[in-house]
Every structure is written in C-alpha cells, then in structure tokens.
Amino acid sequence: MSEKPSVLPAKWDDLTVRITSAVAMTVVGAIGVILGGHWFQMMVVFVTAVMVWELWMMIRPESATSGMLLAALLASVMSGQLHDETLFAIVLFLVVPSIGAFYLKKERLTFFCFALGIQLAGWGLVHFRADYGFTWILWLILVVIATDVCGYFAGKTFGGPKFWPSISPKKTWSGTSAGWLGAGVVGFVFIMFTNAGWSIVWISMVLSFASQMGDIAESALKRRMRVKDSSTLIPGHGGLFDRFDALLGAALFMLLVAYVFNVPGVAF
C-alpha cells in the first residue's frame, strides 16, 4: 500500500511541526507574561539558564554536566540579582560568563560575550515587564513575532536575493523587509489603544531590525561551532536559543535605549 503523498510542497514540510511547537510555547509564554511578577521572573530565569546551557554545549558538548552546573549557577545568581538594586547586582553579571570562560579550553571570548548578552537580555525583560507593565512587554514580543512570521512566509513564498548568505543562507531580503513591514503594522495597531504617537511605527521597525540581528548573531555562532541547532529541545525549532535569539536582540536593544536615554525604570 503506497503512502499518501504530502499535500504541502517540500519547502513547507516543517510547517505543521513548527506551528504545533509555536502554539505550545505561545500558551506557556502568554501565561507567564500575563501573570507577571514572580511567575514571569521564574520563566525568564529558566529560559535564560537553558540558553546558557545550550551555548556551553555548542562549544563543549563532551562536558554536559559542567554545562548543567553552570546553568544552575546562573539561575541562582540571576534570581538574587533581580531583587538587588545595588552596584553588586551589576557585578554579578560577570560571574557566570567569567567562570564559564575560565573552564573552557576554546572559544572563551565567544562564551563570555554571548553568556553576558543572554543574561543582560533576560534581566532586561523582567524589568521591562515590572516597570512598564503588560502592554509594552506585549508590544515588544509582538514585534518580534511579527518579524519572524512575516519574514518566514515572505521568504518561503518570494525567495530572492539572500540577506547575508555567508552567515544565514536561508534569509532573504524579501523576508527581512517583510519582517520590518510586519513590525510597523504592530506599531500602527498599538497607536489605536495606547498613548504612543506615530513614532512607535518606525521604532517598531528599528526594533524589528535589532531582533533580526539577534537571529543573525546566533546563526553566526552556530556556523562557527558547526552545528545546525543550539539543541533539539523544541521540535521544528531546535533549542530555546534558536527560538528566542531574536527576542534577545530586541531586549538588548531596548536595554541600550533605556540606558542611553536614561528611561526611568530600567536605566542603571
């Protein structure tokens, strides 16, 4: 008895698995974002710790136990750090990246920079949720989602010239620009029910670009480490680092903006 041929073209083969995994992550993430407080903190700390473990495993896969211990240390450090407003809390950002880099035999600077970026982004997300509330963390997340979804479908549908073929061969200019447009639409929608002015549209598009750079940075890391995915934790998506790399880029951008312009709440 012959197998029933797939209804979807080959280039869409992964769509069902991706959507199923995305829905599951969206439900869990939405619950955490809506509840806020300690629930959101615990979710972010967990995801941040797992991403640091994935980073370690890409560089030193033969030492899984060390990676798990490092992730546990990060979870402990970050949990205390989120409730400490002193200079000591800032110094704590260096603990896990420094210890991990010390015990690695190669790619020490790579680990230090990425681990520090992951931790900073996680810290920023928690404070954005606490200081600015549900609406604006929702805006940030929706911009990242719109960028990813619009970019995925436009890239698959239209193809065309590659955006940065030496680092991310699958990304096209059509998908990249569609991501910007999708983010702009999100900004436009938020004008209707918030006090944000028209500037939120172009800010959303800049944030979209920052999220794409987070994706590009992780793609460059994987290419350097010669791995396809950061891990196999999420069917159709790879690891948490693969799924949240764009959100990391967006969060780091917003943290930079808050620091440079001394935005109340998250500026040091």
UniProtKB/TrEMBL annotation:
InterPro entries: PC_trans. It is an enzyme of class 2 (transferase). One of its GO terms (biological process) is CDP-diacylglycerol biosynthetic process. Its EC number is 2.7.7.41. Pathway: Lipid metabolism; Phospholipid metabolism; CDP-diacylglycerol biosynthesis; CDP-diacylglycerol from sn-glycerol 3-phosphate: step 3/3. The keyword Nucleotidyltransferase applies. It catalyses: a 1,2-diacyl-sn-glycero-3-phosphate + CTP + H(+) = a CDP-1,2-diacyl-sn-glycerol + diphosphate. It is found in: Cell membrane. GO terms for molecular function: phosphatidate cytidylyltransferase activity. The chain crosses the membrane at residues 15-35, 42-59, 86-104, 111-130, 136-155, 176-194, 241-261. It is a multi-pass membrane protein. GO terms for cellular component: plasma membrane. Its main location: membrane. Pfam families: CTP_transf_1. Keywords: Cell membrane, Lipid biosynthesis, Lipid metabolism, Membrane, Nucleotidyltransferase, Phospholipid biosynthesis, Phospholipid metabolism, Transferase, Transmembrane, Transmembrane helix. Belongs to the CDS family. This is Phosphatidate cytidylyltransferase. It comes from Yoonia ponticola.
